[in-house]
């Protein structure tokens, strides 16, 4: 027997969808505006997970140019049936409207590594789509609808349509399965079968601290559906001090050893000193975003219950199988010697191609071509990875020769187009190359080094940049020789790069650290990055 420590997928990895093929286990998670879309992780023991696929890796599958912040990929559903994997996903195009607007698609593949098919359009009338494969071979499409109809709570309906896979077509007949509990915001639906019952699992309460998992059952898909005796199977709402909060959006599976587990969305808030718990952005600030946890289930009287109580637990018992040998090293170093980007790295909305950069123009370096600024939703040359720890150091070595004040390159800590900081080199009349910092805080800009930028000596070929994150704050440093480091005497609030700070808890991603190059002069420029490292530190 071994224990599993939560979260199992650290950093921004929300909306987990569990899937099993034989003795192999997979989790698909949401990626929102980050490209490629959807991340699929693999495990043999439910404890150790590795990234094995980012399936939506071409524009024909996912065209997000211009998508809003926290648009893009919402809540994918991964399943295995008929000798192949099935992946449903939503590409959300509008978020700031009375009802959202998105497009749903289905792709298939013989293995999670691909090749993945071209997408089948599944309609625009809802989100969080799921595919249920019945034992009689029929398939059903389950989702949360949206649209302009007025009613008291527009967030609490789950609808089912039959899907005819050979014709690649949905039935026009729709059946409402569930209209929600008073928690509202009913979404993230999945259907399972066990011992003569169909089970409908949904997320409710919204995706913040009130989040919960609700289960119903029926002997037929037509209902009637009976609500779980305790209504909520999982939530942390009743335990404000619990270290794992926002727990919900569950996904079930039975292991090959006959045990049941549920993956779920969760977050780890940081508390602000001197601020009462319930006043701190709800219960705190989650700069690492919404992560993935797992828990064991037990069945009583035909109902699933979370072992140990319905709250999310930091440690859970693993299944009755051999624990895998861990291969994950949390210290991460990318030297850009390969032919493609490291899979830990993502771009914003569009693929990494010849318009954004190159790994071959300067061998051993990542070359980024100057494009839009960090507040653009179109062509940004940004290559970034998730914050996965509360305490870490990220570093790069950069070669850059700007010739105009509209050209810059450097290191960014980024949440979305309206919330980021950027430590960069540019060119200034009368000074030459300088190091500066810009911060965008809820779309309000600040230039703290405007009057006293840091001069870059003419004979310096490379500049080293570093950011140190220490729980609630972070700061930047630089070096002109890679040995002697100078701390820039400015401190930034790490907690501001969180869902809880952004737009009053209205967004869905997490903090990233990345490399960026921009040029709005039209003259053309590029920056070369020799390496990119991420090293977590021991957390007290």
TrEMBL record:
Pfam families: GH43_C2 (PF17851), Glyco_hydro_43 (PF04616). SUPFAM superfamilies: Arabinanase/levansucrase/invertase, Concanavalin A-like lectins/glucanases. The keyword Protease does not apply. It comes from the Bacteria. Its EC number is 3.2.1.-, 3.2.1.37. It is an enzyme of class 3 (hydrolase). One of its GO terms (molecular function) is xylan 1,4-beta-xylosidase activity. Residues 334-535 form the Beta-xylosidase C-terminal Concanavalin A-like domain. Keywords: Glycosidase, Hydrolase. Belongs to the glycosyl hydrolase 43 family. PANTHER family: BETA-XYLOSIDASE (PTHR42812), BETA-XYLOSIDASE-RELATED (PTHR42812:SF12). This is Beta-xylosidase. The lineage of its organism: Bacteria, Pseudomonadati, Pseudomonadota, Gammaproteobacteria, Enterobacterales.
């Amino acid at each position: 027997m071994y224990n599993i420590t939560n979260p199992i997928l650290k950093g921004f990895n929300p909306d987990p969808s569990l899937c099993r093929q034989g003795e192999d286990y997979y989790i698909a998670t949401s990626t929102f505006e980050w490209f490629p879309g959807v991340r699929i992780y693999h495990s043999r023991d439910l404890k150790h997970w590795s990234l094995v696929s980012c399936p939506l890796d071409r524009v024909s599958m996912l065209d997000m140019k211009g998508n809003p912040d926290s648009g893009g990929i919402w809540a994918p559903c991964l399943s295995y049936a008929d000798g192949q994997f099935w992946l449903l996903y939503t590409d959300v195009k509008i978020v700031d409207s009375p009802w959202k607007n998105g497009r749903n698609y289905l792709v298939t593949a013989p293995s999670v590594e691909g090749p993945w098919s071209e997408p089948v359009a599944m309609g625009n009338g809802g989100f969080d789509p799921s595919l249920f494969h019945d034992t009689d071979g029929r398939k059903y499409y389950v989702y949360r609808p949206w649209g302009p109809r007025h009613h008291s709570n527009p967030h609490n309906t789950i609808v089912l349509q039959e899907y005819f896979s050979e014709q690649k077509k949905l039935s026009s007949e729709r059946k409402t399965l569930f209209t929600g509990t008073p928690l509202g915001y009913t979404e993230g639906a999945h259907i399972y079968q066990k011992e003569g019952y169909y089970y409908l699992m949904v997320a409710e309460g919204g995706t913040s601290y009130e989040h919960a998992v609700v289960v119903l059952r029926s002997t037929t898909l037509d209902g009637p559906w009976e609500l779980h005796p305790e209504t909520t199977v999982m939530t942390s709402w009743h335990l404000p001090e619990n270290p794992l909060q926002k727990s919900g959006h569950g996904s079930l599976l039975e292991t090959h050893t006959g045990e049941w587990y549920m993956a779920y969305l969760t977050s780890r808030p940081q508390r602000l000193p001197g601020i009462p718990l319930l006043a701190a952005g709800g219960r705190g600030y989650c700069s690492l975003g919404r992560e993935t946890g797992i828990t064991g289930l037990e069945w009583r009287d035909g109902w699933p219950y979370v072992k140990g109580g319905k709250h999310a637990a930091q440690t859970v018992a693993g299944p009755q199988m051999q624990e895998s040998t861990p291969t994950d090293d949390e210290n991460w170093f990318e030297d850009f010697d390969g032919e493609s980007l490291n899979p830990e790295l993502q771009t914003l909305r569009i693929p990494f191609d010849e318009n954004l950069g190159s790994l071959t123009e300067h061998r051993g370096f990542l070359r980024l071509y100057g494009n839009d600024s960090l507040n653009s939703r179109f062509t940004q040359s940004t290559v970034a990875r998730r914050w996965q720890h509360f305490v870490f150091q990220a570093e790069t070595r950069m070669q850059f020769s700007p010739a105009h004040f509209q050209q810059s390159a450097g290191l960014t800590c980024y949440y979305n187009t309206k919330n980021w900081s950027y430590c960069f080199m540019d060119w200034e009349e009368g000074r030459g190359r300088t190091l500066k910092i810009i911060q965008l805080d809820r779309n309000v800009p600040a230039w703290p080094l405007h009057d006293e930028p840091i001069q870059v000596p003419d004979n310096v070929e490379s500049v080293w940049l570093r950011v140190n994150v220490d729980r609630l704050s972070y700061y930047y440093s630089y070096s002109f020789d890679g040995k002697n480091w100078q701390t820039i005497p400015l401190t930034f609030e790490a907690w501001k790069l969180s869902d809880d700070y952004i737009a009053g808890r209205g967004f869905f991603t997490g903090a990233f650290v990345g490399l960026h190059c921009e040029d709005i002069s039209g003259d053309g420029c590029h920056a070369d990055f020799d390496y990119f490292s991420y090293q977590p530190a021991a957390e007290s």
